[in-house]
Amino acid sequence: MRASIHLGRVAGIEIDANWSVLVIFALVAWSLAAVVLPSAAPHQSAAVYWVTGVIGGIIFYGCLLAHELSHSIVARRNGVQVSAITLWLFGGVSQLSGQPRTAGIEALITIVGPLASILLAVAFYVLAVVASAIGGLPLVVSLLSWLAILNLSLGVFNLIPAFPLDGGRLLDSFFWWRSGSRQQGVHAAVQVGRVFSFLFIGFGILEFFTGQVFNGLWIAFIGWFLLSAAGAEEASTASQGLLEGLPVSAAMSAPVVTLADSMTVEEFLRSQAVHHPFTTYPLHDSTGALTGVVRLNQILRAASRGDQGTSLGQLALPMSDIPTSRPDENVAALIQRLGSDLDRRVLVFDSGKLVGILSPSDVARIVSVRQAMASQSPLAA
After folding, report:
1. Which residues are catalytic?
2. 306 in the Ramachandran plot: left (φ > 0), alpha (ψ -120 to 50) or beta?
3. I want to staple 70 with a disulfide (CB 3.0 to 4.6 A). Which of 112, 156, 252, 376 is the partner?
4. What is the DSSP letter of 96?
């Protein structure tokens, strides 16, 4: 079962929805149909309330998408690639492939999200006022008013200075600008964010023991999530700092074993698998030209299905889908350029000759080594 459902593309950006969206969608529709609308516009049938509630839930996620699209569009205009937007339990996340070049660009990319939500709040408020003035249905006026309040709340909540909320990234960009170091900026912002995380957790516990069990658990869970996200952000930034100045040649796996794309799964398992520790194999045709890359797990899955006669070329990703690099390219710059595409492995070429492969495990290994080196005292060194 896939964790996310692909919804399509908007402005050239892939849009996905995590299964957890269904939980919030159901809560939004239920709260509208059972609580908000019956109180604001009584004497309607249950069916009318539920239809309106479902429509409100759809518009709600449209507003979340608009919030994330504003981040993504501004990011692309400032040279930061966006691989996808994923809607999930806590709203949405824009998956940026790389980092902004300056603190100012990061602040710009960040602030447009809350501004988009606040502008949507103003638009829905104006529509509600107009609808009320012309004698619109109370149900419609109530829904528009609720959407105005919700978007305003979303914009303001996102300005809380804690990762991964927009306020945390704005604080990061401020400290980055003051210190001149993004790593120091993230570290300082994380310390502030942890204070807010503990405040959320503490308030949630207080709510729980004063009888507000659900609210208390939810608020405490948000605090825990913010605390975890802050730690992950700092660890990621520290890892990127360890990779600064490191060439791809120092992290890649070499030499590379290439295989004929006509080799079958059975032939590979019988003659090659036991002799090599590799998990990625570039393939070549009869002329020696590279045609694609196959992963060990793909071969093993084919074998488990009984497809021993399948050729490796039939399982491989074509060369057009495989990212490439040079031995002298900076690893940090490469990760910024590729983002999640690093998962597909990177073929390293020197003057047209394949000299190595870089994988996420190679990057993790070199980060661990550099962390160990950095942790040694001068005396131990």
Report:
1. 68
2. left
3. 112
4. E
